[in-house]
Amino acid sequence: MERERFTPGSGRLDPRAALCSDAPALDLNGTWRFRLSPTAGVSPAFAEPGYDDSAWHDLPVPSHWPLHGHGAPAYTNVSYPFPLDPPRVPDDNPTGDYRRGFDLPHDWSGGRLRFEGVDSCAKVWLNGHELGFSTGSRLPVEFDAGPYLVPGRNVLAVRVHQWSAASYLEDQDMWWLPGIFRDVTLTRSAADVFVHASWTGGRGTLSFDGSGRLSVPELGVADLPAGTEITLDVEPWTAETPRLYDAVVTLPDESVRLRVGFRTVSIEDGVLLANGRPLLLKGVNRHEFHPEHGRAVPYETMREDVLLMKRHNVNAVRTSHYPPHPAFLDLCDELGLWVIDECDLETHGFGQVGWRGNPADDPRWAEACLDRMRRMVERDKNHPSVIMWSLGNEAGVGRNLAAMAAWTRQRDPSRPIHYEGDPSCADTDVYSRMYATHAEVEAIGRGAEEPLADPALDARRRAMPFLQCEYAHAMGNGPGGLAEYQELFERHPRLAGGFVWEWIDHGLAHPVLEYAYGGDYGEPLHDSNFVVDGLVLPDRTPSPGLLDLKKVFEPVRFEFTGDAVRIVNRYGFRDLSSLAFLGVVEVDGVPVSEFTLDVPATGGRVVLPGVPGVPGVPGADGSDDSGDGDGDGDGDGDGGDGERWLTVRAVLAADEPWAGAGHEVAWSQSRLSPPAPAPTPGGATGPANPVPTPAPAVAGSANPVSDVAASGPGNPVPASVAGAGGPGVGAGEVVVGGGHFDPATGRLVRLFGIEVEGPRLELWRAPIDNDRYGGLVRTWRRLGLHRLTHRVDSVETGDGLVVRTRVAPAATDLGLRVAYRWTEENDGLGLTVDLVPEGEWAEPVPRIGVVMALPASFERVTWFGRGPGEAYPDTGLATRVGRWSATVEELQTPYVYPQENGHRADVRWAELTGSGRGLRVTGDPVFGLTARRWTTADLERARHRPDLAPGGRVHVNLDLAQQGVGTASCGPGPLPWYDLRPAETTFRLRFKPV
Ligand code: IPT
User: Fold this and answer.
1) By C-alpha distance, which of 935, 874, 952, 869 is closest to 900?
2) pLDDT per residue over 849-870, tens digit each?
3) Which stretches make up the Beta galactosidase small chain/ domain (predicted)?
4) Same domain, 499 and 560
5) Which of 432, 501, 772 to mutate to test the pocket of ligand 1 (most atoms within 8 A of CB)?
6) 748 within a domain of the structure (yes/no)
7) Both 439 and 324 in a single domain?
8) Distance 403 CA to ligand 1 centre (A)
9) What does the alpha-carbon distance between residue 565 and residue 608 come to, in Å, rounded to a whole number?
10) Which CATH number do you get for residue 622?
C-alpha cells in the first residue's frame, strides 16, 4: 500500500512556484461529502462517479475532520503516538473519504488538480480514474487532470489516512490533525518562473528563469527574456521598507503576476547582512493555528498575525516547522517580515530511541526528504521575504539532510541554509541553536564557544553568524530574561538575533473547558499543556509576554541625561522621519504637562521641556500643582513627596499599512523627582531580589524595573514603632488605629469595620509552568512551602501590638521568625513585618509577602505603581509607572492553564473599593499586589479556567518580593539575580480607610 511506503508519492507533476495566473481556475473549496472509517482497509469503491454517498456527512474543505465532530484531536510533543516501526503504521488508522462534483464548461480542456495541503496523505481519483498519491502534509501537490476531465459533471474523490509512512517525517510538536486542510483548485496554469531580484552597491539587478517575457511597468522593463540580467535604479526591499514592484510574465497560454522585491542576503566576516547592512532578527516562531480551525487558518487570521507582529515590533518569522499557507508569505512580502521558511520535516521521536533508524539518515527515506525540500523551495522561491531555507526541525543528523542542502544550494544560491539539529553545522550557512543560556550566547557572541572535535568544521562554524532559532519559551506566565538576550544580540555583531518560542497558544476551543490541551480528548499518550506556550492566547489576545517583547524589540531608544534625551535610531534600514515624539510629565500619575519633541530624522540629543530647571513647565520648580492642596503633588491628600515622571513616546506620524497614525512604537520613562534612592549593593538585608545588574536594562532606556527596584523592597526600614498612645482594649478585643484584634491570637478581625482575614505570611504561589516543568516546584513541595504552619509565640501590647510567630513547614527544622508590629498612625494603621529565617534556606522561594481576605464587594483596584499589566522580577518590561485602575476580574491574566498571574509591581499605594467602605494600602516604599476571587490553593488546583469559581472573598497578596519567572519550561531558569532567597528583613505597609 502506498501509505506504508518510503516513497513520497506517485503520479505527481513536478513542483513549481506558487503564482497568480490569469489562466482559468476552479475553486474546489467548499462543502464536500465525507465519511470517516476507523481503519484504512475500506473498499475504494467510493471513487466511482456513481457511488451513492447520500448516507455520508457534509464537511467543509479546507478543514480538519476531528474539529468537525469526526474523531478527536490528539497532542504529543516529541513522542510518536504509534510504535516506531517504519514504514508501518497502526491498523487503527482513521481514514477520511471525500467526494465532490463540479461542472466544467464545454470549452474547458486540460488542467491540474492542485492540493495546497493534505494531512497526512492523499490518494486522488477523477471520474473513477486514479490520478496518484502524495504525502507531505504542508506542501502542495499537483496531478494532471487533463486526460480524465469531461465537459459537464466531474466527480473528484480523495482518500486521506491520518497515518502514513510520511507521518514518521512529521513529528512536530503540535496537534495531530488530519484532513484536506488547505485549498483545492483545478487550474489550467502550468507556468513556473524563478525571479532573481537582488540589491547590491545601491542598485538592483533583475533576471528570471522560465519561459515567457518579464515586464515591470513601473521600472520601464518590458519583455525581458529569461536568462538576461539587467541593472536598475530601484528602492530595496526590507522588512522595514517592504517596497514591491508589480511584475508580469507573459507566456503563450497565460500571464502570471508577481510582486518583486529587490534585496540581497549575505554573510561577511561572520555577520548576517541584508543589502549590505547587519540584519538583526527580532523574530517569533509561528505555527499555523486557529482555536476552531486548527491549521486551516482563515486568510483574515493570517493577516491578523502579520499585523499583530508588526505592531509588536517583531520583524521576523520562522515558519515552524513547515511551509505556511502560501498567502502568509504574500503578506510577509507586502507588510514586511523577514522569513526563515522551514521544510516540513521533523523526526524528533527517534531521539527517544537514541536516533536509531532516524529517517534523516536512512537512504530509504532519501527521496522523501529531498522531495519535501524541492516542493518548498519551488513553491516559495519568488518571495523577497524569504531570506533563508531551513531543512526542518529536530531531525537529528544525517545524509538526507546533506542531500537536501546540496540540492538547495545548487537550485538557489542566493539564500543561506539553516538547520539547528546538527551541532557541526556541516550542511548550513548559519550557526543556530535553541534555548542556549545567556552565558552561552554571550560566549558565542565573542566567538569563544566550545570547539568542535573536527578542526575544519570548527573553523567553518566559527566564521558563521549565530542565531537562536528558538529561545525564551513563552509558556504561561513569562518569558523572563528577554531584555538580557536582546542586550547580547545588540552587543555582538556575530549575533543575528533570534525567534521566541512561540507565537500562539494552541488551545483548542472547547465547550466546557474553554480551551483544550493534550489529554483533554482522552489521548492515551500526550504532553498535556506543553502545546500552550505562545505569546498570544488562543484567541490572539496579546499576553504580557508579547507586550514585553514589543518593549525589548523597540526600534528607538531613549537615553535620558539631565535636561535632555538622546534618541537613538535602532532601525536597520530607515530613519526616524516616520515617527512623532510626544512627552508627558506626570506627578503621582496625574499629567501636569504634555509636549511634542522635534527630533531629527537621524535621532540625537533633544532638550526636554518639563525637567527640573527647565522654565515654562508647571511644577518643574517643585511647586505642588496636583490640586489636592497637601503639597505633595500626588493628588490624594495623603502627605509625603510626589513622584514626578517624564514619559517620552515615539508614535507613527502617519498611517502605515500595518498600523494607524499614533500607534506607539517605543517609549521610555525617567523619574524627575524625588531622585530614586541609590541601590543597596547586594540587597544587604533583604530577601528582595537584589537590584538587577544594569545588563537587563534595554540599552539607554530608563528601565523602570531597575529604576524602581533600586528604591524598592531591598532597603531596610528600621523597625521602629511609630504612633501615639497605647492600644485600647474593648469588648474583648485589642484596638489599634482602626484595627480590632483577638487578644489571645493577635489575629486581625476587623479593619476600619471591614471583616478581614489575615494578613499573614505566605511563601507560596500557584506554580507557573516554568516552576513546574523546570522542577522548582518539586523542591518547594519537598520543603513544604505549600503547607506552612503558623504558631503564635506572644501577643504583646504596649506601643501598639506586637504578635510574634514562628512560621514553618512540618518535618523540617527550617522556619521563619515573623513578628507583626501594629501601630496606630495619624490616619490609620501601620504594619511592620520582621522576618528572621532559621536554618539553612538554600533554595529560592516562590514569594515573600502577606495574604489577606476581604469581602467580595471589593471589586475595583486603583493603584499608583507599575502597570497596567502584570510584572514579575524578570518580566513586566512593558509596564510603566502611573496611576491605574482595574476590576478584580481585569487583574487576572487568563492563561489557559491556571497559574500565578496578575501581579502588579512596585505599587506605592493601592485602593481597594466597592459598594461600601474602601481600603488604602501604602507601601514603604513599594509592594507587589495581586487580588483575585479565589485562593492560591484554588488557583493551583484548577486545570482549566472554568475550574476557577469566584468565592465569597477577594484574596489579596501584598508582596515584598517574588521569585523570577525565567523560561525553565524549556530553557534556562531565572538569571541568578532574580532568585528570591530568604534573609533577615523588614517590610512595612500602612492601611487606612477611604
Ligand atoms: C523544541 C521544538 O523545536 C519545538 O517544536 C517545541 O517543541 C519546543 O521545543 C518546546 O515547546 S525542541 C526541545 C527539545 C528544545
Assistant:
1) 935
2) 999 999 999 999 999 999 999 9
3) 734-992
4) no
5) 501
6) no
7) yes
8) 24
9) 7
10) 2.60.40.10
Q: Is the CB of 501 under 6 A from ligand 1?
A: yes
Q: How far is the CA of 562 from the centre of ligand 1 (A)?
A: 46
Distance 173 CA to ligand 1 centre (A): 7
Examine the pLDDT at 612 and tell me if it is beyond 80.
no
Closest residue by CA, ligand 1 atom 6? 173
Residues 81, 12 within the same domain: yes
Pick from 653, 592, 672: nearest CA to 628 = 592
The catalytic residue among 254, 394, 554, 643 is 394
Is-contact 339 329, C-beta < 8 A?
Answer: yes
| CA-based nearest residue to 315, from 280, 357, 265 | 280
The CATH number of residue 906's host domain is 2.70.98.10
Quote the DSSP letter at residue 678: P
As a whole number of angstroms, the distance between CA 957 and CA 935 comes to 10
pLDDT greater than 70 at residue 909: yes
* Cis status, amide bond into 925, omega within 30 of 0: yes
Torsion of CA 464, 466, 467, 469, to 10 degrees: 70
By residue range, what is the domain housing residue 119?
A: 2-187
DSSP letter for each residue of 483-532: HHHHHHHHH-TTEEEEEES-SB--PEEETTTEEE-TTTT--SS--GGGG-
Kindly state whether residue 836 falls inside one of the protein's structural domains: yes
pLDDT attached to residue 704: 32
Q: Is the peptide bond before 479 cis (omega within 30 degrees of 0)?
A: yes
Distance between CA atoms of residues 174 and 815, nearest Å = 44
**Of 671, 702, 735, the domain-final residue:** 671
Task: With beta carbons less than 8 A apart as the criterion, state whether 899 and 939 touch.
Answer: yes
User: Does residue 173 line the site of ligand 1, with CB under 6 A?
Assistant: yes
Which residue has a Cα nearest atom 12 of ligand 1?
394
Q: How many domains does the chain have?
A: 5
pLDDT at 4 over 70: yes
Residue 646: which of 673, 627, 685 has the closest Cα?
673
| Other residues' Cβ atoms within 10 Å of the Cβ of residue 194 | 17
Q: Is 394 in the pocket of ligand 1 (CB under 6 A)?
A: yes
Q: Residue 36: CB partners within 8 Å, gap ≥ 6?
A: 65, 70, 71, 94, 95, 96, 97
**Is the same domain home to 383 and 329?**
yes
Q: Give how far Cα 676 sits from Cα of 603, 670, 672, 879, 881, Å.
A: 27, 10, 9, 18, 13
How many angstroms does the Cα of residue 350 sit away from the middle of ligand 1?
A: 14
For residue 511, give the C-alpha cell: 465547550
- Asked if 127 and 143 count as a contact pair (C-beta separation under 8 A), the reply is no
Q: Which three cell numbers mark 590?
A: 496625574
CATH number at residue 362: 3.20.20.80
Which uninterrupted H or E stretch holds 368? helix 366-380
Q: Which of 170, 470, 824, 870 is catalytic?
A: 470
Active site residue 470: yes
Closest Cα to residue 213, out of 202, 227, 224? 224
| Residue 698 is assigned to a structural domain of this protein | no
Which atom of ligand 1 is found nearest the CA of 78?
A: 7
843 is catalytic: no
| pLDDT of 77 above 90 | yes
The last residue of a domain, from among 170, 187, 204: 187
CA of 462 relative to ligand 1 center, distance in Å = 25
Tell whether 815 and 869 lie within a shared domain: yes
Cβ(773) – ligand 1 distance below 6 Å = no
CATH of the domain at 101: 2.60.120.260
Please give the model's pTM, rounded to 2 decimal places: 0.94
Q: Would you say the CB of residue 595 lies under 6 angstroms from ligand 1?
A: no
Ligand 1 pocket test target in 394, 422, 531 with most atoms within 8 Å of CB: 394
The string of pLDDT tens digits covering residues 810-846 is 999 999 999 999 999 988 999 999 999 999 999 999 9
- With a pLDDT cut of 90, the percent of the chain lying above it is 90
